[in-house]
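Data deposition worksheet. Section B asks for the primary sequence of the deposited chain exactly as it was used as input, without tags or linkers unless they were present during the calculation. Section C holds the resulting structure in token form. Section D is free text for depositor observations; keep each observation to a single sentence. Incomplete worksheets are returned to the depositor.
Section A, Depositor: J.P.
Section B:
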Amino acid sequence: MLATDLVPLLRAAGHRVLAQGRQALDITDPAQIRRALGRHRPQAVVNCAAHTAVDLAENDPQNAMLINAEGPRLLAEACADLGARLVHLSTDYVFAGDTTVPYAEDAPPGPRTVYGRSKLLGEQAVLRTLPDTGCVVRCSWLYGNGGPNFVTTMRRLAAERPYVEVVDDQYGQPTWTHDVAQSLALLLSAPPLSGVLHASNRGETNWHGLAREVFTLLGADPARVRPVSTAAVPRPAPRPMRSTLGHGRWAALGLPAPRHWRTALHAAWPLLGER
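Section C:
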């Protein structure tokens, strides 16, 4: 989803962009990475590739670690050799999700899932290998046009079912991929940055609240969204109960922070499903 928005945005800004999918460039294959980067010699690499099937990762840890931890390490090493900067996408799942305040960029991580642990290892590899030109950008609850997501699922279910049940005790930040793409474009136009930034939309809601907002935008009765607890819908991988991300570093860098999640969703609404 993110690359779907990022590539045309960067091209419209005048950047020369090479966007390669998994069939053309497998980030777990060091020979492919070396060939691709050596041939094109990019100034910057943005890694949007990831194993994001959170529940599947619990039963397939080897593959999750290969893609989310080993792949970023290999990319970082190749970028170090070429003198290229690396922007690596990560997730709120690197945190335990047991806080009552937003996680700052430098808050201690504490992942509770295979997915979260694999993503944290990927972060650490990038920052260790590229201490001056490696940037980790964490996102959460992404939705957009490039793939399946909660917002489009709720739109579909609103037309198919008289009501839906959605958990109301997991809190986070719905984030439009377009807004993340704009944040990435801003970073790429600035001098190389290192360290961690959070690019989620601001504010906080739970999944139930997000679903009600989707129904409202559809003109459907939001009361058709019924609240349930996490305990009522057990999953293989435990979800963070509150993984709200803080955005203090944007202000420290003199850059605009992402907008509120509700403002972004309303702006995204006419565009979702266009492509």
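Section D:
The chain has one domain: 2-147+173-204+244-261.
The mean pLDDT is 95.
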